[in-house]
Specification:
alpha/beta; six-stranded parallel beta sheet; three-stranded mixed beta sheet; 15 helices; elongated; disordered N terminus
């Protein structure tokens, strides 16, 4: 059923292109207007038929969600708003109680979530947590040869190697209930970007690796939690994209913080230098969307004493993943090593829970904007 939905999405995409070209041709070739009018009507009928088929043939409505932290809990809220029937699990019983009081089903183990779900999404802190949730004693794949979920989506930020190991384990299973041409469960790695604010607003970006047909089938679910999903290729490529993105984000934040702190030492206010950066070649996300200087920008972690946002310990974790991945493929990683060292020291100095932009204050000794 999911494969048929994916095929229908392809059909819709092709027909939309044909429809646009046909409409353009019709308006520019008046001598054959009758022929093109018939073609237009025919394409409209087929397009409507495909859309109805799309709605009819695929309805993965029972979604399990494991990992109800700052990101996961907000993603679940958006799934519920979109009309999905959600079953949740987390090791934190208090957060599970919060959802059950909202009328959401909760289960004691990942295995139990799998029994109630056609799709399972995981949002977990580390590679070891992901391995345990999927392959552990009470994991999603506990029954081994036959599982219920047709689609498993891991949105955790973990290394590509672990992602591919889990994907292989999933591919070795069968489905309890066959779904049209979908005979085996499929895994997608779909880490996200955008942070807590985007998770709450439903504007996340998903970086997706795995079979393209499964990605097309998963898009409606992803779109209930985000505004952008980018297909990155085969299994593990979504995880690889996320690691590379967060490496660029760390280096960008360090560079921006260093420039702003240096500017202060040279007598330029952070707000003035920010204005220069944001209208010049130094402009970047760290300067114009997530400025690290307290007092320069409202609504960002630096404006609330670096509370909330993306914790320094998580950035340190992601840089460790980047370093390990670079070492595995023999890639020179000078900036990874330096960023890794800085954020490691930040965490050891007691700033692990503060937003990663606090590097401006605690590493570069930058001053608040008065």
């Amino acid at each position: 059923m999911a494969i048929r939905r994916a095929q229908t999405l392809r059909c819709l995409s092709k027909l939309k292109t044909s429809f646009v070209l046909g409409s353009y041709s019709r308006s520019h070739r008046f001598s054959s207007s009758s022929q093109h009018s018939n073609q237009f009507q025919f394409q409209s009928i087929v397009l409507c038929f495909c859309f109805i088929s799309f709605l009819y043939f695929f309805s993965l409505q029972n979604v399990g969600f494991i990992g109800l932290g700052n990101m996961g809990s907000r993603m679940v809220n958006n799934l519920i708003k979109a009309g999905y029937r959600v079953t949740v699990h987390d090791i934190n019983r208090d957060v599970m109680k919060m959802f059950t009081e909202m009328g959401v089903s909760a289960r004691g183990t990942p295995y139990e979530v799998a029994q109630d779900s056609e799709v399972v999404i995981t949002m977990l802190p580390s590679s070891s947590h992901a391995m345990d949730v999927y392959t552990g004693t009470n994991g999603l794949l506990r029954e081994g040869n036959a599982i219920r979920p047709a689609l498993l989506i891991d949105s955790s930020t973990i290394d590509p190697q672990t992602t591919r190991k889990i994907s292989l384990a999933v591919s070795n299973c069968n489905l309890k209930e066959k779904r049209e041409n979908w005979e085996k469960p499929v895994m997608l790695d779909a880490p996200v970007s955008g942070g807590v604010l985007a998770a709450e607003a439903g504007t996340l970006t998903f970086m997706v690796g795995g079979p393209e047909e499964a990605y097309l089938a998963a898009r409606p679910i992803l779109q209930s939690m985000g505004t952008t999903s980018i297909y990155c290729g085969g299994s593990g490529n979504g995880s690889a994209a996320k690691i590379c993105n967060n490496l660029a984000m760390a280096v960008s934040m360090l560079g921006t913080s260093e420039a702003l702190a240096l500017g202060q030492s040279l007598g330029i206010s952070a707000s003035t230098l920010t204005q220069v950066l944001n209208t010049s070649s130094g402009r970047c996300w760290s300067s114009d969307k997530y400025n690290p200087v307290p007092g320069v920008m409202k609504g960002v972690p630096s404006s609330r004493d670096y509370n909330g946002g993306f914790a320094s310990k998580l950035m340190a974790k992601d840089l460790n993943l980047a370093a390990a991945s670079a070492e595995e493929v023999g890639h020179k990683s000078t900036l990874i090593s330096k960023a890794q060292e800085i954020y490691k020291n930040m965490c050891e100095d007691g700033h692990e829970t503060e937003d990663f932009s606090c590097v401006f204050r605690h590493f570069y000794n930058g001053k608040d904007e008065v």
